[in-house]
Specification:
It contains six helices and two strands; from the N terminus they run H-H-E-E-H-H-H-H. The chain is mainly α.
Amino acid sequence: MPQKRISPILRSCFESLEHGLFHFLRSPTSTDMKFAILHVDQAIELILKEKVRDLGKSVYKNPKETISIWGAYDVLAENKIKIPEKSDLELLHEERNSIQHKSANPDPNDAAFYIEKAVFFLNRFAKDELGVELKDYISSSHLENFFTKK
């Protein structure tokens, strides 16, 4: 099936996710876990911004700055978009902040928790809120590590 034409924001989301999963699946080293968390968290922020844009809302706070992940959550809540996974996504974002701002070294088991929760969220949200299938944009060799074939 041909891929649905998607926005640059959503394309960037999928590219970030693909790169994050590459690092996550490559090795359990601190470096790979860092990049996995950074890129997968970026993918989440971008998919949330894509839904904001899809609602006809601006993703910009001003001409040079976009809304944060927290701003996206606020806009989505105002528009009655439910994110039951939010508590897990918040943990991932805080881990990302620790890596980005405090040079944290994520534990591979913790990273696995965050990445798995994120992939299941991204899969559900892309389908339910944006009408696209993650499997149409992300390598099946990456996704088969999270979803068993039936």
